Amino acid sequence: MSSQQNPYLSPKTNVISKTEEVSVIPKFFGYKGRINRLRYFVYNFLFSFATAFISLFAFIPISIIAALSGGSSGAAMAMGGFSIFLYIAVCLVSLVYFITISIRRCHDLNKTGWLTLLMAIPVVGFFLYLYLLFAKGTEGANRWGAEVIPSPTWHKVIAWLFAGLIIFCVIIGFIAGIANAIR
């Protein structure tokens, strides 16, 4: 008698016991699942840097053409329209991406993704961003999915480089302020 014919056998299922560790690798785009705070920081930094880089190069061609033609060329006007369109498109993609990773970060904190709507309120949004950036996520699985695998080393390197860049800029700012006050 086979197992399919015997009604007294228990069904075979893939049950995960509470002692087993399950983790997932987060996808770069998408609003489902979770993302830990280091990935949130690194993805924000890298995408912001890429947005600034693309935006910068959206306006360089128009500046060059306008400078060479005296600013009255039809080509300069056409490039200006294209540059503005490209800039708006990049900003919209950046906004959508920022919202999706913020939703996943809320999921890691075992909160609903609708909380990201509070980021539209100026002061509240700033403090919510800080909360998402620094709060430790829930340990193990939660209602939004399995725990995210630990961040790779390159995430940690980028985070430390960016922290060093911030410290460097603050020091340069203080030095420039002091030099300006002395003059």
Overview of the molecule:
It contains four helices and two strands. The protein is extended. The relative contact order is 0.15. The chain is an all-alpha fold and 183 residues long. Residues 17-21 have low confidence and may be disordered. It starts with 22 loop residues before the first strand and ends with a helix. The protein folds into two domains: 31-148, no CATH class; 152-183. The longest helix is centred in the middle third of the chain and has 35 residues, at 74-108. 61% of the residues lie in helices and 2% in strands. InterPro entries: DUF805 (IPR008523). It comes from Spartinivicinus marinus. It holds the Pfam family DUF805. Keywords: Membrane, Transmembrane, Transmembrane helix.
Q: What labels describe this entry?
A:
single chain, 183 residues, mainly alpha, 2 domains, two-stranded parallel sheet, 4 helices
Secondary-structure element series:
EHHHEH
Shape: extended
**Domain count:** 2
* β-strand amount: under 5%
> If you average the pLDDT, what whole number results?
80
Strand order of the largest sheet: 1-2
Amount of helix:
55-70%
Q: Nearest-angstrom radius of gyration?
A: 25 Å
Low-confidence stretches: 17-21
Can you count the beta strands? 2
Compile the SSE list and pairings.
Blueprint (H helix, E strand, L loop, with lengths): L22 E2 L12 H33 L4 H35 L13 H13 L12 E2 L4 H30 L1
Helix pairs in contact: 1-2, 1-4
